[in-house]
Amino acid sequence: MEHRPAIIITDWEIPDVTGIELCGEVRRDRNYYTYVILLTSNTEKDQIVEGLAAGADDYLTKPFHPGELLARVAVGRRIAELHQEIQAKNRLLEEMALSDPLTGLPNRRAVEHWAARELKGAARHRFPFWVVMADLDRFKSINDTYGHAAGDIVLKRFAELLKINTRASNICARLGGEEFVLALTHIDQHGAQTAVERIRLQFEDERFTFAEREVRATASFGIAGFQGNKAPEFQQLVQDADAALYVAKSSGRNRIEFAS
Predict the structure, then answer these.
(1) Active-site residue (options: 178, 204, 214, 257)
(2) How far, in Å, are 69, 73, 79 from residue 66 at the CA level?
(3) Does residue 81 carry a catalytic annotation?
(4) Is 176 exposed, middle or buried (0-12, 13-18, 19+ CB in 10 A)?
(5) In terms of DSSP bridges, do strands 179-185 and 129-136 run parallel, antiparallel, or are they unpaired?
(6) What is the SS3 assignment for 152?
(7) What single-letter DSSP state applies at residue 20?
(8) What are the tens digits of pLDDT across the range 24-75?
(9) Rounded Cα gap, residues 48 and 34, in angstroms
């Protein structure tokens, strides 16, 4: 279990545990595949079926030809390697399912999964939990004037600034379009405002060059928080932060507003 070998060759009769029991233990690890070859001197088909049903992939009846064992090991290697490739591709698919392909940030599904766990911790230990909704100002005009490739550059740069300014214990994500969310914990309201203001100023100072013209972009932010022993639903905090974001947009953009 510690070394997770690609192939195990085991006798049916071994000290302390049978080969059948060993197969059962190996198959309990659902996260890793090991090809098991069972060696037995028993030629009874019922017992051979029992061994295969217990999790063995192949068997050899003793005495056997060494060349046959090596050939079956080669087959086992090929099958084990295929399983490893499938597992690697499945991990990649899982990562893709939880991340935004353009920016590399977590997506809505990932942040909701993270927040559900963290909100319980915030209620249990009574530390502050803040949700920040961010939206790029007049982003449509960048796409319309300079094209979607230019818009993608702006989105990726904003995502980079979010990631740079997000601690490992927190999370930032892209919800879609020009809309992002940031969750902050273990800081008071002043700390939350300082952290978001840093991001706002850094993005405001960015300069982009499209069609030989210098372009600037800004973002507006809405913040909603919770501290206590009864956590609200994450979606409720998102709605409250979104309402504060609407106020920021209506009040001139490129600013921060807290939910009332």
Answers:
(1) 178
(2) 5, 11, 20
(3) no
(4) exposed
(5) antiparallel
(6) helix
(7) H
(8) 888 887 778 899 998 888 777 787 788 888 889 998 888 889 999 999 999 9
(9) 19
The pTM for the full model equals 0.68
Distances (CA, A) of 29 to 55, 79, 197: 12, 17, 47
DSSP assignment string, 189-246: HHHHHHHHHHHHHHHHT--EEETTEEE---EEEEEEEE-SSSPPPHHHHHHHHHHHHH
Average pLDDT score over the chain: 92
Instruction: Give dist(CA 191, CA 203) in Å, integer.
Output: 19
Q: Encode pLDDT of 65-101 as tens digits.
A: 999 999 999 999 999 999 888 888 877 767 667 899 9
Cα three-residue angle 82-87-90, rounded to 5 degrees: 125
Separation in Å, CA 198 to CA 55, 201, 243: 57, 5, 21
- Which 3-state string (H, E, C) describes 121-137? HHHHHCCCEEEEEEEEC
- Tokens representing 89? 């591709």
How far apart are the C-alpha atoms of 165 and 178, rounded to whole Å? 18
Query: Do 6 and 73 meet the contact criterion of CB atoms below 8 Å apart?
Result: no
The CA distance from 82 to 257, in Å, is 53
Residue ranges in 3-133 assigned as alpha helix (H): 19-27, 45-53, 66-97, 108-125
Query: Which are the contacts of 229, defined by CB distance < 8 A and separation ≥ 6?
Result: 123, 124, 126
* Nearest in space to 59 (alpha carbons), one of 69, 207, 30: 69
